Amino acid sequence: MSDVLERIDEQVKSHPVIIYMKGTPKLPQCGFSSRAAQALQACGLPFAYVNILSDPEVFQNLPSYANWPTFPQLYINGELVGGCDITLEMYQNGELKPMIEAAHAAQEDKPEES
Predict the structure, then answer these.
(1) 30 is annotated as contributing to ligand binding
(2) Superfamily classification of domain 2-97
(3) How far apart (Å, rounded) are the C-alpha atoms in residues 103 and 15?
């Protein structure tokens, strides 16, 4: 199990914005994942995603990674933001886009690892 948790940790830390979802942003496989991905897309900035349905190990172990039992899961700057409801609420009140912009800016400011 530790291998998959290390892989999740690497994904979360190497992308300024990543969503673990059922399906893909273009072909979501559940309504919650669809709405969360739409909110991210509406912000107009790139984000990474992992289709948990195509990776059973991630599907089984992600809930224990950040102690969050449901999907989708949105991470910004390596921190769990939350699921669909929190993502939508942050989008609707104008908090999501500035948070994503700040995450991208912080990623650009990181020194290159050798």
Answers:
(1) yes
(2) Glutaredoxin (3.40.30.10)
(3) 9
| Average pLDDT rounded to a whole number, residues 12-31 | 97
Decide: 18 and 11 in contact? Cβ < 8 Å: yes
End-to-end CA distance of the chain: 29
| φ, ψ dihedrals at 113, nearest 5° | -85, 140
79-82, strands of its sheet edge to edge: 48-51, 17-21, 73-76, 79-82
Q: What is the pTM of this model?
A: 0.93
Question: Do residues 59 and 111 lie in contact, with contact meaning Cβ atoms separated by under 8 Å?
Answer: no
Residue 90 contacts by C-beta under 8 Å, 6 or more apart in sequence?
Answer: 39, 81, 96, 99
Task: Write the pLDDT tens digit of every residue in 58-85.
Answer: 999 999 999 999 999 999 999 999 999 9
> In whole angstroms, what is the distance from residue 36 CA to residue 110 CA?
27
